[in-house]
Amino acid sequence: MAEEQTWRQLARNTARKINLGWWLQTLATPLMITCLVIACATLITRRELDSIPWAPLTAGTIAVLAITGLLSWLAARSRFETCKQSLVRIEAAMKLRNALTAADHGIAPWPEVPGLVDDGVKWQWKNLLPPIVGALIILMCGFVIPVHAKSDKQSKQPEPSAWSELDNSLDQLDNQEVVQQEYIDEMRKKLEKLREQSEDDWFSHSSLEATDNLKQNHQSEQENLQNNLQRAERSLNALQNQGSKLNAEQKQRLLNEFDQAVKKMQQGGMKPNKELLEQLKKIDPEQLNELTPEQLDQLRKNMRQHAQNLNPG
Question: Which domain holds residue 63?
Answer without folding.
Answer: 2-153
